Amino acid sequence: NTRILLASRPHGEPTAENSRLETVPMPEPAEGEVLLRTIYLSLDPYMRGRMSDAKSYAAPVEVGAVMQGGTVAQVVQSRDPSLAEGDIVLSHLGWQAYGVQPARQVRKLDPQRAPISTAVGVLGMPGFTAYAGLLEIGRPQPGETVVVAAAAGPVGSAVGQIARIKGARAVGIAGGPEKVAWLEELGFDVALDHRSPTFKDDLKAAVPDGIDVYFENVGGHVWDAVLPRLNTYARVPVCGLVAHYNETEAPAGPDRMPRLMQAILTKSLTIRGFIQTEFVKTHYKEFQKDAAGWLADGSLRHREDVVEGLENAPEAFFGLLTGKNFGKLLVQVSDD
Ligand code: NDP
C-alpha cells in the first residue's frame, strides 16, 4: 500500500518537503470493517487548514499522519454484511491507495445513478456547500444580483447556476480567460477575470443595480472590490477565504476594519460564516433530490480536473490554492 503523510507543517505556501510518500503493508479489516481501494481522492482547499496547527473548527492532521481527504473507493474485502466485494462507496481514506474503514462510516453509491466521481463534487460536499450556503444564508430572490468568486471551481460554479435556477442574475469571477469563457458557456450573466488590471471597474459595470448576495469564497482583492458595491440588506455567506490560506502575516496597507464595520452598520449587511456540516441534518436530503434533478435536466453542469496518480497529489494540491485547477480537482488513484 502507498500513502502520503504530512512530513512537516508548511509556513506560507506548502512545498514538496511538507509531504512524504511511503509504502507500507496492506491493512487488514477487523469485524465490521471493509478494506477499500481508492479510485478517486478529492483535493479540497480545507486541507491547507488541516496542515496547520492554528486553532480551527477541525483538529489538524498530526505530523507523520496520513493526509485526510474524501475518497470514492471500491470494496476489496468486506467483514460487514452491509457491504459486498465490488461495491463502490463514498469514504474518507485520505491520501492513500488502500485503507480500512468501519462499514457504518462509508456510504454505498449507485454507479447507475451518476458517475461515481460526482459523489465528491457536484453531488457531494462542494455541491452541498454551494446549495446550503446560497439558499439558507444568501437567500437570492428573483431579479437580484448574486456575485461569486472562485466561480470556475466546484463550489462557485454551483452557486452561480443555482442562483440562475432561482431566477437571480449571476456574476462569476475567475482567474483567466479560459475560466471566464466557461462561465459564459454555463449561463452566468456576466463573467469577469479578477487578474485583469481593469477588474474593479469591470465589476462596477457588471452590477449596475449593486450586489444583493456576495458568496465569499476567496477574500483578498476580490472582497475589496465587492464591498463598496454591496446593496442595503445584502447577504454575504462567508464560505471560504482561499486568498488568505497561505498568508503568514497581516496584509500590508491601512486597517480596513473601520470601513468594514461602517458598511455593515450603514447598509444593514448580513455577513454570516458557515461550515457546511452544520446544514447536513436540515438540508442534505433536499439537496440530493434537487441537485440530481438539475444535473439530469442540464441546468446544473460541472467540470472535473483529474490528475493521474497518488504521487502527484501534493503538487496538484499546491496548485489548487493558486488557481491552477480548472474544475473539481480529483486524483485518479486507481482505475474505476
Ligand atoms: P476551487 O476549485 O474553486 O479552488 C480554489 C480557487 O480559488 C482557485 O482555483 C482559484 O481560482 C481561486 N483563488 C485562489 N486564490 C485566489 C485569490 N487570491 N483571489 C481570487 N481567487 C483565488 O475550490 P472549491 O470550489 O473546492 O472551494 C471554494 C471555496 O469554498 C474555498 O475557499 C473553500 O475553502 C471553501 N469551502 C468551504 C466550505 C465550508 O463548509 N465553509 C466547504 C467547501 C469549500 P481562480 O483561478 O478563479 O482564481
From TrEMBL:
- Specify the Enoyl reductase (ER) domain's residue ranges: 15-331
Which is one Pfam family of this protein? ADH_N_2
Molecular function (Gene Ontology), one example:
oxidoreductase activity, acting on the CH-CH group of donors, NAD or NADP as acceptor
Key words of the record: Oxidoreductase
Region entry Disordered: which residue ranges?
Answer: 1-21
What InterPro entries does this protein's entry cite? ADH-like_C (IPR013149), ADH_N_2 (IPR041694), ER (IPR020843), GroES-like_sf (IPR011032), MDR_fam (IPR045010), NAD(P)-bd_dom_sf (IPR036291)
Q: Can you tell me where the transmembrane regions are?
A: none
* UniProt keyword annotation of Oxidoreductase present: yes
In its UniProt entry, what is this protein called? Zinc-binding dehydrogenase
Q: Which organism is it from?
A: Aeromicrobium yanjiei
